[in-house]
Amino acid sequence: MKKKMMLFAAVAMSVSMLAGTSVTALAQDTARVGSLKGPTSMGLVSFMNEAETEDDEDVQFTFEMMAAADEVSAGFTSGDLDIALVPANIASILYNKTEGKVQVIDVNTLGVLYIVTADESIAGVADLKGKTIYSTGKGQTPEYVLNYLLEANGISQDDVTVEFKSEATEVVSVLAQDESAIGILPQPFATAACKQNENLKEVCDLTQEWDKTGKGTLVTGVTIAKKDYIDANPEVIEEFLDEHEDSIEFAEEDTAKTAELVAAAGIVEKAPIAEAAIPKCNLKYLDGEEMKTALGGYLEVLMEQNPESIGGSLPGDDFYYTETED
To answer: Which of 142, 179, 182, 320 could be bridged to 118 by S-S, CB 3.0 to 4.6 A?
Structure first.
């Protein structure tokens, strides 16, 4: 609970600066992009590489990867970042805290969570009753997804013990030391853990478990920008979206080259592990109505479970960016 309150406090402190500002964004030909070190950045690596090696683009994009969601949120709300890739629920929190001054411009990543263990008695969420589970993401997507899936399988939160760790590598360390331990890991860490320890297996894809509930699409990562920045820089936003879509498509089509870029960027240590993980990372570009349908449905589920997880209320239609028409 303490870590969860710290996360919300960090987001609240950051958005208070954004909500109180009256500075109007100015049109510009550069854009600062922040992302989390993980799947969301894996979908960006082709774009990042082109931005570094080509200098003839109309807009100059710069990129910064960070280790934690609150770091990205803080950089975004302080004005150090123009565009940010954040967990889906954090986008909704920022929208509510700033009274609608933030828009989501695309969905970039769907479900990435897996149950990883050497315990052969575990095949799915239904087998977790009475177990201790190690996970990251207190107050974030992993916690809310787990709670929802437990409930969907008739398991009370009191029927399991969840030990939250600050980083995925800590969960991997527990699994390495105790073969009976059960971890919930995002990609690419799930793949990396299994490559490093042949006894570990990805026994359950939580995205597939979510799909069984009939509650729409599990959304992990989205991209946001401030409304005044979007209004002042529509061409920048459109170019970002075009490049982002191309980058995600490249990751899906050429996993070997993307894996090299992922390793070079320091997201995953070795390219072979990255190449094995990329198809499981659910990199997916959605915008417009597809984005609204997928993200809106996911936020509705979180709202039913815990309104605090999305900032207290569902975002309005103005939360969802619509491409400007000429």
So the answer is: 179
Model pLDDT for residues 75-109, shown as the tens digit of each residue: 999 999 999 999 999 999 999 999 999 999 999 99
Q: Give residue-wise pLDDT tens across range 133-187.
A: 999 988 888 899 999 999 999 999 999 999 999 888 899 999 999 989 999 999 9
189 Cβ partners below 8 Å, 6+ apart? Answer: 38, 168, 169, 171, 172
Alpha carbon separation from 127 to 122, 160, 307 (Å, rounded): 5, 11, 28
Positive or negative: CA dihedral 254, 259, 261, 265: positive
- Give me the chain's average pLDDT, please: 89
For the record, the structure tokens of 82 come out as 């123009």
Q: What DSSP string runs through 173-238?
A: HHHHH-TT-EEEEETTHHHHHHHH-TT-EEEEEHHHHHHHTT----EEEEEEEEHHHHHH-HHHHH
CA distance 151 to 118: 24
Q: Which residues pair with 30 in a beta bridge?
A: 60
27 token code pair = 């049109």
In what side-by-side order are the strands of the sheet with 219-226?
Answer: 60-66, 30-36, 83-87, 219-226, 102-110, 283-286
Structure tokens at 280: 């499981």
- Cα 309 to chain centroid, rounded: 14
Cis peptide bond prior to 142, omega within 30° of 0 = no
If you ran DSSP here, which 8-state letter would residue 220 be given?
E
Do 91 and 73 contact (CB within 8 A), yes or no?
Answer: no
CB atoms within 10 A of CB 121: 10
- Closest CA relative to residue 290, chosen from 219, 235, 229: 219
Q: What's the whole-model pTM score?
A: 0.87
Residue 58: which of 311, 223, 239 has the closest Cα?
239
Cα separation of 244 and 241, whole Å?
Answer: 5
In 3D space, the residue among 275, 309, 320 whose CA is nearest the CA of residue 142 turns out to be 309
